[in-house]
Amino acid sequence: MDKRLEEIRESERKSHIEMYSNEELYNSESWLKKPIKTVRDLIPLFDDYEKLDVLDLGCGVGRNCLAIAQEYQNIDCSIDCVDILEIAIEKLSKYAAEHGVLHCINGIVKPIEDYKIEKESYDLIIGVSSLEHIDTKDSFISKLTEIGNGTRKDGIVCFVINSQVKEFDKSSGVEIPAQFEVNLSTEEMQSILNKIFDGWTVLKSTVQRQQYDIPRENIISDLRTNVVTFVARK
Ligand SMILES: C[S@@+](CC[C@H](N)C(=O)[O-])C[C@H]1O[C@@H](n2cnc3c(N)ncnc32)[C@H](O)[C@@H]1O
Questions:
Q1: Which of 90, 93, 125, 194 is most buried, by CB atoms within 10 Å?
Q2: Domain range list for the chain
Q3: Long-range contacts of the stretch 180-187 (C-beta < 8 A, 24+)
Q4: 96: CA distance to ligand 1 center in Å?
Q5: Does pTM surpass 0.90?
Q6: 111 lines ligand 1 (CB under 6 A)
Q7: The CATH number, out of the four listed (3.40.50.150, 3.40.50.1110, 3.40.50.970, 3.40.50.720), of the domain defined by the range 3-233
Q8: CA 73–ligand 1 middle distance (angstroms)
């Protein structure tokens, strides 16, 4: 693993361990407060399914996939949940049990880049604020292609991906390296998505400018990003 990747992974690991140890899912003022609206809006689209297979890449503690499990717990619903952090999958199992949906959840501790997606195996594949942490641009592109192939006919992909990220030391204003393995321009990100999912029906494609503070090693970072949301049906 090269040095930059190692540093990003370590910094991400620390901040997520702290978040997942100290904040309670759905009972927090942080981003763990509730499932994202883009995913909530997709849930009714599977109302007539008797069997539902979902993949959540970089699932964290289950903020989004547990909402899906809750809705479809009484059909044959199976959600493969992949995260690089053991604590994420441990907490996911705990929250799944508390919500009575453990039977729908398969927790997998693995980097997204190493998780092999079989052809046409999922009805819904989501990646929320996680795909930009795939190790390289090449494996990001090949994973998106694999996601496309892994989606069944009429299935849906749902991505939220940071692009064109810049970070600044909040106290000095000095720019610091952005802690994202894949940090593409917004234009390139959209062009890759449009190319790989060419011929699909795009249900949502937006870019939202966001700025927020995020703790990094010894400093607070002022992070600026264009958040790309992309939802498409095969
Ligand atoms: C910002 S959190 C988002 C979690 C979840 N998708 C959500 O929306 O609540 C990013 C998650 O991706 C995981 N992650 C980061 N890089 C990863 C990788 N290469 N493979 C798998 N998971 C990764 C982190 O451990 C973390 O749980």
A1: 125
A2: 3-233
A3: 180/8, 180/132, 180/133, 181/5, 181/8, 181/132, 181/133, 181/134, 181/135, 181/136, 182/131, 182/132, 182/133, 182/134, 182/136, 182/137, 182/140, 183/132, 184/137, 186/226, 186/228
A4: 17
A5: yes
A6: yes
A7: 3.40.50.150
A8: 24
